[in-house]
Design brief:
It is built from six helices and no strands. The chain is mostly helical. Helix 2 (23-33) crosses helix 4, helix 4 (54-67) runs antiparallel to helix 5 and helix 4 runs parallel beside helix 6.
């Protein structure tokens, strides 16, 4: 995916689990980045999120839960099928 919004999303999530992440970043990603997503960005995220690393899925769940748009909720539902139990629990918590 080459869209500017998706690249920005990946940048904020970080290159590895040691990359900086906190509540402020969660809100920034939700309100400042995910709101810029177009239909193709959402489709790509939905189709690929379960192939991403655990930290990436966890951070996505937090940001998607902060946004709570219909598209975000659909991706959160997808995360319920994550191979990582912590991610599935985080997604369920965000959907609650």
């Amino acid at each position: 995916m080459n869209s500017k919004a998706y690249k920005e999303y990946c940048h904020w999530l970080g290159q590895d689990e040691d990359s900086s992440w906190n509540e402020y970043i969660t809100e920034q990603v939700a309100q400042g980045v995910l709101k810029k997503f177009d239909v193709e960005d959402w489709k790509f995220l939905h189709e690929t999120i379960l192939t991403k690393e655990e930290y990436w899925q966890e951070r996505s769940a937090a940001a998607l839960g902060e946004l709570r748009s219909p598209d975000a909720i659909e991706v959160l539902k997808k995360l319920l099928d994550s191979d990582f139990i912590g991610v599935a629990i985080a997604a369920a918590s965000e959907l609650d």
